[in-house]
TrEMBL record:
Transmembrane regions listed in the UniProt entry: 50-74, 86-106, 112-132, 139-160, 180-203, 210-230, 236-260, 272-290, 296-317, 329-348, 375-400, 421-444
Top-level division of the source organism's lineage: Eukaryota
Protein location: Mitochondrion membrane
GO-annotated cellular components: mitochondrial membrane
Protein name: NADH-ubiquinone oxidoreductase chain 4
Gene source species: Prosopocoilus gracilis
Amino acid sequence: MMKFLLALVFMVPLSFLGSGFWFSQCIYMSLVFIFIVEMSWGWMYCHISYFMGVDLLSFVMIMLSMWICSLMVMASEGIFKSGYYYKTYLLTLLILLISLYCTFASMNLFVFYLFFEFSLIPTLILIVGWGYQPERIQAGVYLLFYTLVASLPMMVSIFYYYLVAGTLDYFFFMKSVEFFMFYICMSMVFLVKMPMYFVHLWLPKAHVEAPVAGSMILAGVMLKLGGYGLMRLMQVLIPVGMSVNLVFIVIGLVGGFFVSLICLRQGDIKSLIAYSSVAHMGLVLGGIMTMNSWGLMGSLGMMVAHGLCSSGLFCLANISYERLGSRSLYLNKGLINLMPSMSLWWFLLSSSNMAAPPSLNLLGEIMLINSLISWSFYCMIFLSLISFFSAAYSLYLYSFSQHGKLFSGSYSFSLGSAREYLLLFLHWFPLNILVLKGEFMVMWI
């Protein structure tokens, strides 16, 4: 595990090379394939070195982080061409990937907490440094304070658990804690990060103000930190969770339904995709909180699927934004007349977003529906509403942006570059091919 960390650390000088932009992207992509070949997995942790190791859950999350980071560089050609501090930009992306790698690979709760919080800093720099509007400062403050307010109690609860159990290594997490305040302090930071309805307002702001790479990493990986943390710590929280999880399942499902209605009223493409993330992660939260194997498997599948699908949709929104200079749905109309080939990708990723076959979203959603209905039959009401409105806002996004009368006369008549089509293909192809290997989600349970 240390060799991959050292490989990333030694990429730092590469960020400052004049020709290092596309070379960095090639190295990221190479690391992904080397990581796949090197890692074998089983029931327990393997490839253990110092404080790091991987089981299947860590493996999937690290893979997703590396994949999304390599695509982030590919999506950021605009920053490279403009020459706007692109070397610093590359360095920020690299530091972010290193912190995510250490977060997912660590086998100790305190080390996990340390890098979990550290990953906030490069994300903040991305939003404030390369964001689009003056409101990015406010978005950065939202992101910072939502996370910090919830994370300081978690640090206290980590020390308390060390006092009770005598260890912070995941492998020795045998002792559960029957203490309500411990449950709230430990899980709240993950609920903010997911984000759960009621503590979700930082997400649309951060997404709308972030550059394309910021949106991709937020949707693709940062939201998954919350689900990953809850999965890791749920065994410690079981006694209190048996009586309290009901509340969070209800918030996840009812909030998912409300947010789906909010999506139908959005005029901003990025805002609509950001709110759809809240709805999907509400399902993931419900699946984890049921504390059964279907829920955990479905949540893992849904997190990977959402990471690829949502990241791809943000790339599409950026492709339109680069040409038109606006993210408004009222101006981005009739694109099928100008870029018919791009409309295919809009359709494919919108259909994946509504969990149409053969996407991994469908597999994850089926597992989550099994989990939640076995927990309580009444969940069927909100699950059916979320599924229906998920299709409604995905079709709304597609039809509103592709059909209709063309408003803008200043639109570039480019049919899209090979780089853009490759970028979208590398989001969509893994999303739809991973459904063939659904048994991997069962292996870590």
